[in-house]
Amino acid sequence: MVLKFYNTLTRTKEVFKPIKKGWVKMYGCGPTVYWYQHIGNMRRYIFEDLLKRVLIYNKYKIKHVINITDVGHLTSDADQGEDKMVKALKREGLSLTKESMLKIANKYTRVFKEDLKKLNIIEPDIWPKATKHIKEMIELIKRIEKNNYTYKTRVGLIFDTSKFKNYSKLGKLNLKEIKSGARVKIDSERKNPSDFALWITNQPNHIMQWDSPWGKGFPGWHIECSAMSMKYLGEHFDIHTGGEEHIPIHHTNEIAQSESATGKKGVNYWLHNRWLLVKGAKMSKSKGHLYILSDLEKKGFSQLEFRYLCLLTHYRKPLNFTLENLKFAKDSYTRLKNIIYQLKDDKKTNKKYLKKFEEAINNDLNIPKALQVLWMLIRDEEALGKLDTIKKMNEVFGLDLLKKEKIIISEEVKKIIKKREEARKNKNWKKADELRKKINKLGYSLSDTKEGVKVRKK
């Protein structure tokens, strides 16, 4: 079956053709580990996980890399301001030392990986850290410099975007608008406002610095991804992912510096997800409407209920987040699990519904349509092979649809269940119904089967 993805570079839906038959090399921009990743960030990793699962479903073997940024990500895209890691040290009252910075990075890397696990996100094959790849960055910058794409300013070594012919292609940028100061604060020493730093030397008090041919300093954020992706995936690989915010600057700069060094195309398919919105705007801590996964847990929502919510909207559409929408997703997910819980295994696969499912997922990851197919299957009273088909679908959804939860039942509920069984045995249906309602109010649902009563959490 044909597999298609929307390529941001061409703004068209294209048939996926890997560089090497049966293999996919994929890179995703990872977190700057200075704080918790909010649920807007996590939507992106769910999107990337769905992409990976669809590729695996289509029998591809994958080499997947997600980087960890633990140095060099400044608060301003104009290569100015504080390193975000330094801000984290000040926020948490830690000493401004290399050891403290690495401690912070390790802490939030650990939390991030725990969140991925809770969301059933498959980890990448390689987790390269920026601080462990300075040598590769310096060598890559040397290649760019040798090809005459650089110049020096008080900031450091700068990439000259005017020399890279297709600089504006990915972001469909209007460079004249950028020159008016719309994107970055104009640096009087820069030839073009869109130019960016490869190596920064104007911050002598920066905690982490390394010797280089351009002076003691640290790498620009953009060069990190180019160096690490090329080290582990080669100079030409299949897929690069990120959020829509990466398109106009970070990924645009990645393409410029990678291809100016190698002289050839670096990535075949660029895939980007749209933002998760709160009150119509991108989730932001400064605006006071930011959630992390633990916030949702405190409000009684599970991580997979949030994952289910993300699956209801196509990755190329904004997802409007509200607690009401999450409550709807929770109820829908619970209902789905309860229905599946009662299905009988007939050892068959329903090829009709599986084909519809595959058509949806292979059409640019149309997961919402694939979920509709799942609901159609379970509501079809005449359909056979439901359980086996759902099992195959769940390989992509990652929702633990057939996983039986361990139910811890309180002694109070156990006593009520026992009384209800006695009422049913005596054919006292009115009392049995009253006791069922009482159990429901305590947060449990009952299913009467030939094997006996089955209890689930609501």
Present the secondary structure layout.
Blueprint: E1 4-7, E2 12-15, E3 23-28, H1 39-57, E4 61-66, H2 84-91, H3 98-118, H4 134-146, E5 150-152, E6 156-159, H5 175-179, E7 196-200, E8 218-219, H6 221-233, E9 237-243, H7 247-262, E10 267-273, E11 276-278, E12 281-282, H8 293-298, H9 303-311, E13 319-320, H10 323-341, H11 351-361, H12 367-379, H13 386-397, H14 411-425, H15 429-441, E14 444-449, E15 452-457
Parallel strand pairs: 3-4, 3-9, 9-10, 11-13
Antiparallel strand pairs: 1-2, 5-6, 6-7, 7-8, 11-12, 14-15
Helix pairs in contact: 2-3, 4-6, 4-7, 6-7, 9-10, 11-12, 11-13, 12-13, 14-15
Q: How does this structure look, described?
A:
The protein is α/β, with parallel strands linked by helices and 458 residues long. The chain has 3 domains: 4-273, 3-Layer(aba) Sandwich (Rossmann fold), CATH 3.40.50; 302-397, Up-down Bundle (Four Helix Bundle (Hemerythrin (Met), subunit A)), CATH 1.20.120.640; 411-457. 42% of the residues lie in helices and 15% in strands. The chain has 15 helices and 15 strands. The strands form 5 sheets. Strands 4-3-9-10 form a 4-stranded parallel beta sheet, sandwiched between helices. A 4-stranded antiparallel beta sheet has the order 5-6-7-8. A hairpin with a 2-residue loop joins strand 11 and strand 12 (281-282). Helix 14 runs antiparallel to helix 15 (429-441). The two termini are 39 Å apart. The model is unreliable at 180-184 (pLDDT under 50).
